[in-house]
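User: I'm writing a short methods note and want a consistent example. For Ig-like domain-containing protein, I'll paste the sequence; you return only the structure tokens, no commentary, since I'll be parsing the reply automatically.
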Amino acid sequence: MPLKPLSRGSQCQNTKEKMLSEFFIFGLVMTSAITGGECEVTEVFAQEGSEAFLSCKCDPSSPNPASVIWTKHDKGTVWRKTQSGLQFWGTSWLHKKTPRVQCPHYRFERRDYSLQINSVKLEDAGLFSCRVGTADGVIKHQVMLRIIQVSISPSAPIWDSTFSISCDVTPPAEGATVQWTLNNISSIEAIKTLQVAPTKSLVSGRASARLEGNWTCVVGYKGEVGRASVTLAMKGIIQPPKDDTKVYAALGSAATLPCVFSPGLIPSSSAWEKLESGFPFKAATSPLPASFSQPTPSSQPSVDKSAILTEVRSEDEGTYRCSGTVEGRQLTRNLHLVVAKVVNLANKAGSVTMSCHLSDTSEVTRYEWVHQDFDQSGNLTVVSIHKGKDLTVAKKGDDKGEWTCRFYGKQGILGNVTHHMAVMSSLGGQNSGVSHKAAAAGVLSILLIVLLLVLVQMCRNHRRRKRILQYPTLETIVHRISNEREEREKNREKK
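Assistant:
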């Protein structure tokens, strides 16, 4: 097989005669029957596309090598280094003039002449030979490189459709064992395993969430173990990532119910349902909330079919189902809306006890109250932090301001709900001042009525006087008649 040297300073300018002489001497050394040591033969497994290390380690006490050559039984020379230091590569081991194989020189002092192959191909599988020429003889080492291939069909199956994963070893190894693991767990249920050939295994099943992840084919042969992995990623609804995912929302706030399909997987139809409480697998009978807003159809098909609740109420909590039809198969995802609110447990004269209440606490591991208030610059800052589900604070003083209850799960914060102390204080004092306000309102109403009557009477008197002053002669006659009547009555009494 033709060899191609890489330039290495002035050494690449050697004459053709010197090169031929070195080839001749090297060939004699490699084919001579000079006695020497021989390293043991090893088995090496590598996954297609990865790196492979072919071992060639000799006795540390052996002399410095005059030359090193790696060959493959069906491709000739892979790499070699002559006594002068020149390196040569076989043309089939070069990729765009860049070698895919190398033998690090810094290991030569430890008598390690191992070969590294980058981006292993299927045709790289086979028997390799390492020959090290020294002053004492030739040391030979053989390595069998076996390539493990794993593949998924189809590459990204749709939820609930069938799929298969194959594992093939080249060249085959008679008597080898093949096992499968999923996410480093060897026990896999509900899948079918078929041994197609001595070193070819096939697993098949129906796509579901519990079969998604990293599949590894483990091959054992002559004490050596090889592994090759492939990731099974299914197409379907990716948000939420699994059924019964909980979405936390504060009472009165807006909430998003996610429903996002895989990129490029646009459903032909989609719908939202609110499942009846206690029957998560039955068709929904409960009406959707009043503030529920479904995605509006658009001219541009979208993979996002999420819905929005503009104002969450207590009765909105429960299980919702998003569904869509893809390639004639209906995909569904259930999610649970959890409503969070602050409730008033006790209301005393100088304090109030608040509690962080959630409609579902199955994922909550701890609670935390954060007190925030405005500083002198007008910025909202954290004043204090308290642990626990319940909290007792004073109605006046430093405890006024904004209180936020944060609730956490195993993976971190789940959500929060905020309440303002000023609002709670006014509500707390409302009952105690009702009677006083009612009495004051009654007295004020009576005073207003009396004042109104006085004003009406004054107005009537004024109008009457005004009418009389308009006729002064009539007033004189009336006055004279009245006086005469009084005189007549006095005279009668005297008689």
